[in-house]
Amino acid sequence: MTRKLAIVGPMLLKQLEARLLKK
């Protein structure tokens, strides 16, 4: 679980940032 979050976490944050920047 921890390793998965360490890998997926940053990706999700980047996606959220991209969405916010687009808006």
- The amount of beta strand, in percent, is under 5%
Q: Report the count of strand segments.
A: 0
Rg measurement, Å: 10 Å
- Amino- and carboxy-terminal Cα gap: 32 Å
Mean pLDDT across every amino acid position = 91
Helix percent reads over 70%
Q: Supply the number of helical segments.
A: 1
In the predicted model, the low-confidence regions spanning at least 5 consecutive residues are none
Major sheet size, sense and barrel closure: none
Backbone structural class: mainly alpha
The general outline is rod-shaped
String of helices and strands: H
Task: Explain how this protein is built.
By secondary structure, this protein is mainly alpha-helical. The protein is 91% helix and 0% strand. The protein has one helix at 2-22. The radius of gyration is 10 Å and the shape is rod-shaped. The mean pLDDT is 91.
Topology readout:
Layout: H1 2-22
Summarize the structure.
The chain is mainly alpha-helical. The chain has 1 helix and no strands.
Keywords:
23 residues; 1 helix; mainly alpha
